Amino acid sequence: MDTVSNAVHYVFLAAAVCFVLGLHLMNHPRTARRGNAISASGMAVAIAATVWLVAHEGTITTTGWLVLVSGGLVGAALGLYAAREVKMTAMPQLVSLFNAVGGGAAALIAVNDLLQADDPAALGARVSLPGALDIVIGAVTFSGSLIAAGKLQGVVSGAPVVFPGARLLNVALPLSFVAGTVWLVLSPDSLTALYGLVAVALLFGVTMVLPIGGADMPVVIALLNAFTGSAVAMAGFVLDETALIIAGMLVSSSGGILTKLMADAMNRSIANVVVGGFGTGDSAPAATGGAPAQVRSVSADDVAVQLAYASRVVFVPGYGLAAAQAQHELGDLAQLLTDHGVEVSYAIHPVAGRMPGHMNVLLAEANVPYPQLKEMDEVNPEFPQADVALVIGANDVTNPIARKPGNAISGMPILDVDKAKSVVVIKRSMGHGYAGIDNELYTNPKTGMFFTDAKKGLSELKAAVGEFVG
Fold first, then answer.
1. Mean pLDDT, the chain, integer
2. Which residues are designated catalytic?
3. How many CB atoms lie within 10 A of CB 244?
4. Distances (CA, A) of 199 to 140, 159, 205
5. Are residues 41 and 113 in the same domain?
6. 436-465 confidence digits (pLDDT tens)
7. Which residues cross the membrane (predicted)?
8. Count of the separate structural domains present in the chain
9. What is the CATH number of the domain that holds 464?
10. Which of 32, 305, 417, 442 is most buried, by the most CB atoms less than 10 A from its CB?
11. Residues in CB range of 99: below 8 A, 6 or more apart
């Protein structure tokens, strides 16, 4: 190993240290920005070191340099655009697309390495086995993440898409992975084995995610993120690059832990999520004037009176808040109440929204003080002392029917909103959430339904409360 190669090796190790440190700092919102900056700096240094090594080796052609530079510029431009322009409501789709790009890139690395080998037949299992695994995991992640993004965007139905023989196919395809992997390891020069493995993996990514309902999307996003990390780690083994292995395993392990936490928050096993069939997707909005007789409808003034004279208010945000982009209106209302002496907090369910941590990031954008955000286990004991629990667009995570056996969300940990002294739900209609079942909270005698768009409703509440406290 010459001096440059040796120096680049140590630079990669330093970049890996940055990844570990950055991930550690992301454990807390106060240090998350610094952790993200350190991780990004480590990646930038690793990319620069790679370019330096390629230039030193002198093996790249003019065309290769054009492709390298063009790819870097296009990727940087798209990343900058996404960071600045993509709305918080579309962040889950963006994460899914990132997963697809990561998995697809890792799979292409393995395919290219096998195709460009001087003597593919002479490749040992040390290269061909991780290469085959990289292809399988990366291709599954690529196609599966695209389907997940389509479901989140509404291009693909959020309801489970199950066709005759789908589950049998989802058993047969993984078995074919095993056969294809063995074939490719034994015959690394077989184009049939290589392209067949790619095709089968791409197909499985589609058939795996299609039957999964919208209710499981937070789990699916975390799972595919773990897949991306595994694919990157396998690519590191193929290229014999320590930094890729470390970065991939960090993503894989953290994504795996997050997947388990998300599944536990829904009282579902990861296997049940992959089997699919849970959740119908958003139901079509019903006409706002057609609420059932047992539902008590309230106005902005009714709710404002309760909020203005309350001692403690708990806000319960859900995806409806994100869809209406009403986080700033909620933050303004909360600040108004806080200035009036009302104790304010936010109850955050682990799977509220469509992505792990979606509500935390959304509220952080509105400069909501982090100490006011409370996780489910912390806030549930506080609901009985709350004068008002204001639910904004949250559905399944507040449904008391989860405490009863024999339904789609039985056993799922929920926010104990119904234990507050008074409950107000801001919702456009009586439509179902992703689980596709009625919410018993809405017919509770202590619940008032404020039928309106979250952004408009919160603005009206702020104006009405201002009149009372002004």
1. 85
2. 396
3. 22
4. 10, 25, 10
5. no
6. 678 899 999 999 999 999 999 999 999 999
7. 6-25, 37-56, 62-82, 94-115, 135-156, 168-186, 192-212, 219-238
8. 3
9. 3.40.50.1220
10. 417
11. 141, 145, 148, 221, 224, 225, 227, 228
